């Protein structure tokens, strides 16, 4: 089998030391392959978000080795000097709270990422429009984030995460704020991205109605992978 | 896409209000510089007014402005005969205070001999002195109309002409009268003691003037003529350039230091205020900055946003402040002169201040953790 896009080996995370030490994640091995849509399940506080944040370089692992898209990026320490560039190039984040930049219009929130990634303006405009159309928010292209409904904002945030065609998509409860139909659209889109872009998509979720759309699920309990 | 601009537009009202406050402060800074320029300019007006090349004053003094100087009136004839002198005239200077209606008016009375150097070079309306007595050319700033009469001591003068912008270093309007009138005024206003002395011939007021000023023929060197004049031990001579320098150092130097210090303090206050504003603006954007880091924006982008906002803040405030000061400059009791080079220099200083002040905001921004964007 081909090498996984995401490969975690003995990756652990603890917060604090001594009596206040919290082991958010015990040493964990995990492989996620291109084209797969993987669910990460588990009760609240079990370490699901920690896994996503470690992969995304937002949180520093306490130990272990992380390989992303063929490159070892963490091995006891970060080997990539520029984690932000890595995120820009390889990773799209989707959160429960949309995190749109409030002073940029819908279009500009998406164009910003393409801009930073070095896309030409016409290409960026084309791409932005396509994404907005696909996520059925093209009519809100010029709106400011504060003028959007929760569902619209979430779809724009998803469009932003997908904009630069990342090979890794990390979604932390992406459908929690969406109704069944919208949640279905989002899952379809993530599936499409996984297949067409040969991306690895990891979705943290509690959402029963999307479980059946996942290729596989992993379950965490108290920082340990139990299934 | 310019993040700085987008954010400013998003909080347009608040930003403009902040700018307005800062504009007032920077306006004060600029008016300080303008006031200084006004002081310097005012100080030089009187010495430049007669368009002289050479000032001959009492020996061992640096008169007639920086120190008092009294020389015999007939020094004029001696100076006029020096090689290279085209023409020479005598001048007296005295400050008088008079009452016009309910108003107290201080005037710098300049006495000169019509037809010789020392009088008003440019009379804006009316005419120069035509009679030997009781006519006056007065600066418009005194607010006295042509044809109006002014009582000074025992004499009544008629204003026959106006100059524009001729004031002494204290900002008092200049009044030109004939030498004879000026000397009589001096005699009258000097008080009883001086009069008694004069009667005894000890201070022959009528034969004394404050300075002789001369114009030098083309091709002649004012310095050489000055040296020649100083062969008379009771006389000293200063070129126009020396006289101006003297005034600037003696009269203006303290004002320059005073205003310079004050301007520096105001700029420091502005810097602190700009730094605090930028810091607050950055703190308000913590979540946005965290999100930018999350989506992969480099520090350069974030820095650029903060520094550009600081510059926009400074630039808009400076422009508004400059506009305000230009609008009200003429209503100041003393002249406020806004020179283009000062505006340019000050804008450069403000730009530097903004960049320095944004360091605090930049440090704050760089420390923001991308994980901050994750919380609800
Ligand atoms: N910044 C932090 N400091 C201390 N403890 C943390 C921090 N972030 C997460 N934790 C702890 O790590 C554990 C796992 O958290 P998280 O990954 O957010 O769980 P989940 O997403 O599954 O709800 C929890 O016990 C949580 O309290
Ligand atoms: Mg979580």
**Strand count, sense and closure of the main sheet of chain B?**
10 strands, mixed
Query: Any idea what the CATH superfamily of chain A is called?
Result: P-loop containing nucleotide triphosphate hydrolases
What is the strand content of chain B?
A: 15-25%
* Proportion of residues in extended strands of chain A: 25-35%
Question: How large is the radius of gyration of chain B?
Answer: 29 Å
CATH architecture of chain A: 3-Layer(aba) Sandwich
- Helix and strand succession of chain B? HHEEHEEEEEEEHHEEHEHHHH
Task: Enter the CATH topology name of chain A.
Answer: Rossmann fold
Helical residue percent band of chain A:
25-40%
| Chain-averaged pLDDT of chain A | 91
Low-confidence stretches of chain B: 200-204
Distance between the termini of chain B: 27 Å
- State the helix count of chain B: 10
Spell out which ligands are present: adenosine-5'-diphosphate, magnesium ion
Oligomeric state of this protein: heterodimer
């Amino acid at each position: 089998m081909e090498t996984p896009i995401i490969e975690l080996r003995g990756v652990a995370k603890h917060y604090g030391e001594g009596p206040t030490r919290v082991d958010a994640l015990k040493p964990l091995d995990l492989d996620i392959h291109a084209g797969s849509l993987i669910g990460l399940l588990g009760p609240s506080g079990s370490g699901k978000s920690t896994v996503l944040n470690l992969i995304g370089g937002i949180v520093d692992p306490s130990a272990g080795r992380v390989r992303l898209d063929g490159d070892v990026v963490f091995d006891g320490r970060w080997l990539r000097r520029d984690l932000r560039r890595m995120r820009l190039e390889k990773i799209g984040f989707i959160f429960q709270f949309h995190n749109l930049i409030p002073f940029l219009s819908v279009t500009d929130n998406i164009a910003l990422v393409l801009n930073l990634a070095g896309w030409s303006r016409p290409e960026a405009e084309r791409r932005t429009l396509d994404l907005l159309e696909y996520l059925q928010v093209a009519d809100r292209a010029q709106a400011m984030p504060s003028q959007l409904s929760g569902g619209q904002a979430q779809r724009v945030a998803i469009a932003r995460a997908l904009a630069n065609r990342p090979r890794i998509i990390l979604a932390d409860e992406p459908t929690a704020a969406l109704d069944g139909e919208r949640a279905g659209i989002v899952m379809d889109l993530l599936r499409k991205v996984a297949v067409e872009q040969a991306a690895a998509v990891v979705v943290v979720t509690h959402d029963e109605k999307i479980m059946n759309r996942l290729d596989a699920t992993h379950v965490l309990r108290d920082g340990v992978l139990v299934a | 896409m310019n993040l700085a601009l987008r954010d400013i537009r998003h909080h347009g009202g608040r930003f403009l209000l902040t700018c307005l406050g800062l504009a007032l402060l920077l306006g004060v800074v600029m008016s300080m510089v303008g006031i200084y320029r006004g002081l310097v300019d005012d100080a030089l007006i009187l010495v430049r007014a007669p368009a002289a090349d050479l000032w001959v004053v009492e020996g061992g003094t640096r008169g007639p402005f920086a120190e008092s100087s009294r020389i015999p009136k007939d020094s004029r004839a001696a100076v006029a005969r020096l090689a290279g002198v085209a023409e020479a005239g005598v001048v007296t200077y005295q400050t008088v205070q008079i009452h016009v209606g309910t108003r107290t008016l201080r005037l710098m009375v300049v006495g000169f001999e019509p037809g010789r150097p020392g009088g008003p070079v440019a009379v804006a309306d009316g005419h120069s002195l035509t009679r030997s007595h009781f006519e006056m050319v007065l600066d418009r700033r005194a607010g006295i109309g042509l044809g109006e009469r002014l009582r000074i001591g025992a004499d009544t003068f008629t204003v026959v002409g106006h100059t524009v912008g001729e004031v002494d270093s204290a900002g008092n309007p200049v009044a030109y009268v004939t030498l004879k009138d000026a000397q009589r005024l001096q005699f009258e206003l000097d008080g009883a003691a001086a009069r008694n002395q004069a009667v005894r011939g000890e201070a022959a007021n009528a034969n004394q003037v404050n300075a002789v000023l001369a114009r030098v023929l083309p091709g002649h060197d004012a310095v050489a003529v000055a040296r020649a004049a100083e062969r008379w031990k009771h006389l000293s001579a200063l070129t126009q350039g020396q006289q101006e320098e003297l005034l600037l150092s003696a009269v203006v130097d303290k004002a320059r230091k005073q205003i310079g210090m004050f301007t520096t303090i105001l700029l420091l206050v502005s810097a602190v205020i700009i730094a605090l504003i930028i810091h607050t603006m950055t703190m308000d954007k913590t979540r946005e900055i965290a999100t930018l880091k999350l989506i992969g924006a480099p520090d350069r982008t974030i820095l650029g946003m903060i520094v550009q906002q600081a510059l926009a803040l400074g630039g808009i405030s400076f422009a508004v402040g400059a506009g305000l000061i230009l609008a009200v400059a003429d209503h100041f009791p003393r002249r406020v002169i806004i020179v283009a080079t000062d505006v340019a220099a000050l804008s450069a200083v403000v730009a530097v201040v903004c960049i320095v002040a944004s360091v605090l905001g930049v440090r704050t921004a760089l420390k923001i953790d991308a994980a901050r964007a994750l919380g609800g």
